[in-house]
Design brief:
By secondary structure, the chain is α/β, with parallel strands linked by helices. It is built from 11 helices and 5 strands. α4 links the parallel β4 and β5.
């Protein structure tokens, strides 16, 4: 049975190029290609592809949130992020949302086809550099529960929203607090966790 693959990317040129690549591969079959998350959220549960190539920077709902929502309606689908972003925030947010692999758009065609088969077989394909970040994340000494215990319920909720990839303005709206309160949470959380960036805060939160 061929592996059914869907594509979600707002760049028509990239979408067409990926579609052509998949159509040429004897062991793959194109299930559908979509220009935005909204269309993908409707079509992917109905078409049930095996693997989805997901861009992050989509208009409207971004790719990370799209994966998060689709994992509830199409839990057996495997998601392979295909993006230009190499930062740790994008990587860890994608994995936390339910993605199984993470590759850059400059990945060679042969490597991409191999990654699709790999993720379908239960693997987690990503570049060696990104894989090293994941390994380093798990090799860091655990801070223990004491650090997290110092956080207030509000600070923990703020960190949860941060880990889910929401911007400060979105967090303020979701928590029904002011943007000034959000900034206050940023200061106190960074101080309590002894971190200096959003990525460090999220990593410590996920480990805690």
């Amino acid at each position: 049975m061929p592996i059914k693959v869907a594509i979600v990317d707002d760049d028509e040129g990239i979408r067409n190029s990926l579609a052509a690549l998949i159509r040429r591969a004897p062991s793959l079959r194109l299930s559908g290609d979509y220009p935005d998350a909204e269309t993908a959220l409707k079509e992917i549960p109905r078409r049930s592809p095996d693997v989805v190539l997901m861009d992050i920077n989509l208009p409207g709902i971004n790719g990370v949130e799209c994966v998060r929502q689709l994992k509830t309606t199409a839990p057996t689908v495997q998601f392979l992020m295909l993006t230009v972003y190499e930062d740790s925030d994008s990587l860890f947010n994608s994995l936390k949302a339910g993605a199984s692999g993470y590759l850059l758009k400059r990945t060679a065609s042969a490597k991409l086809l191999e990654a699709i088969r790999d993720v379908h077989a239960g693997g987690s394909p990503m570049t060696p550099q990104l894989a090293r970040r994941v390994v380093q994340f798990f090799l860091r000494p655990a801070e223990g529960e004491a650090t997290m215990a110092r956080l207030t319920p509000g600070e923990k909720e703020f960190l949860d929203q941060l880990a889910n990839g929401y911007a400060y303005k979105e967090i303020a709206d979701r928590m029904k607090i002011s943007i000034d309160t959000v900034r206050s949470y940023v200061r106190t959380v960074y101080e309590k966790l002894h971190v200096h960036s959003r990525t460090e805060a999220v990593v410590k939160y996920l480990r805690g």
